[in-house]
Amino acid sequence: MGEADRIAKNTEWGLEVLKDMVSIPTVNPPGEKYSEFARLSKEVLENLGFEVSVFEVPRDYVERYYPDYSQYPRYIVLAKYGTGKPVLQFNGHYDVVPPGSGWSKNPFEPIIEGGRLYGRGSSDMKGGIAAFIAAAKTLVESVGKVRGTLELALVPDEEIGGETGTGYLVREIGSRPDYVVIAEPSGSGTIWIGHKGALWVLVEVYGRQAHGSTPWLGVNAFEYMVKVASRLIDEYIPQLESRRSAYEYDDPRGARPTAMIGGEVRGGAKVNVVPGYYSFSIDRRITPEERVEEVEREIRDLIEKVSKEFKEVKIGVKVTNRLPPALTDPSSDLVRTAREVAKEVLGFEPRTTVCLGGLDMRYYTQEGIQTITYGPGLLGVAHIADEYLPTEEFEKMVKTYYLLMKKYLG
Q1: What does the DSSP 8-state code read for residue 248?
Q2: Which of 8, 199, 241, 318 has a CA positioned 20 to 30 A from the CA of residue 52?
Q3: pLDDT digits 0-9 by tens, 3-22
């Protein structure tokens, strides 16, 4: 059988595997059916000749990061084929967001219609997992013995931050591949070489509660919260708008660092009670040129400055999440090689951009590992009703993944 015929055959096989995977409702939160998915993927990979290990994330580790979901077991599936260097790893998260409403089809009964495979997780991102498994099957059948190691890592919990998925794989299991491809749905025409980071902050304002009929006896925390937020809007946001990242983004407006204020607002007790407490959130998105620590200091310094002006209240800053940005040098070997093999399939070189949202890339890039995110699908249909994966996209990525595997290991 020729290479083209083998790829075509395994693409069809991969779509059937994808259907089986989508049929397992690995909904997160809270983290359902993970063990069922781990069993299925272990069986599929062992049948291809991979050595497969399944790691259960300790409950106390899950409790540390996601206490509300610690009673749901988490599993990492790590499959290896070959030995030695280089180690090329493909990573994919198998958890999916809840289906929500508005579906015209059963979200967990996948169906192919009009060149699209419908189902929750088809695009984000079981499609990527099935594509690299189909590519691996082609490599094993075509090459047999590889020079180096091919690793396939199937992880949970990316949808809630990845600490107990890729985070545990890298930090606790000690995964240290030479190259990593994360198969999130960037689309075949775009390779993400990094992603923005985020700092989530809660600004808390403490006044003094009083009866609504005697407001002069209290200190209205809401009024001061508005004043603090106004200072951020008038002073801080214009500073950010004057800054620009040097890298390309999917949307040119994404080249700026941003601060979104008021995503969450808490406080107040009753209509006739002077509020003694109010708080609001800041979602600060961080470019690869910035450091989380510097951004945090910047915000704290500004709030401290404002606090000195409003001595009637106590103002505090609480950091609720730190997500470092990630970046792989666009001139690195992995980026260059991925663009070259993609051009063979697409007829053009894909763009290299920085993703506006957060990804699991940061766990690898913090360890100095060359990492890209490149996978089939359409980001615009992730998380929506009637999520789908174009089968043509799937076919392109199976070919591209196979050529990339062959380039490093064939």
Answers
A1: -
A2: 8
A3: 999 999 999 999 999 999 99
Unique residue bearing structure tokens 């991925």: 338
If you search the block for the tokens 């390309």, which residue do you land on? 248
Instruction: Give the domain extent around 29.
Output: 3-195+325-409
Q: Are both 206 and 77 inside the same structural domain? A: no
- Verify cis geometry, omega within 30 degrees of 0, for the bond prior to 325: no
**266: which strand partners?**
279
Helix 221-231 vs helix 292-309: angle between axes, to the nearest 10 degrees?
Answer: 130
Cβ atoms of residues 52 and 40 within 8 Å = no
Q: Which of 286, 307, 323 is the last residue of a domain?
A: 323
Task: Indicate whether 40 and 132 sit together in one domain.
Answer: yes
Is 79 strand, coil or helix?
Answer: strand
Q: Which residue has the tokens 């998380």?
A: 383
Domain boundary among 295, 323, 351: 323
Q: What's the CATH code of the domain at 231?
A: 3.30.70.360
Confidence (pTM): 0.94
CATH of residue 85: 3.40.630.10
User: What are the C-alpha distances in Å from 87 to residues 52, 248, 272, 317?
Assistant: 16, 28, 65, 43
Ramachandran assignment for 59, one of left (phi > 0), alpha (psi -120 to 50 degrees), beta (any other): alpha
Q: CA-CA distance, 113 to 110, in Å (whole number)?
A: 10
Q: Are residues 306 and 331 in the same domain?
A: no
CA distances in angstroms from 45 to 37, 51, 81, 180, 378, listed in the order given: 12, 8, 10, 19, 26
Q: How far is CA 277 from CA 23, 225, 388, in A?
A: 46, 9, 45
Whether the Cβ atoms of residue 72 and residue 34 lie closer than 8 Å to each other: yes
* 240 & 342 share domain: no
Q: In this predicted model, what pLDDT tens digit does every residue of 222-259 receive, in sequence order?
A: 999 999 999 999 999 999 999 999 999 999 999 999 99
The domain tally of the chain equals 2
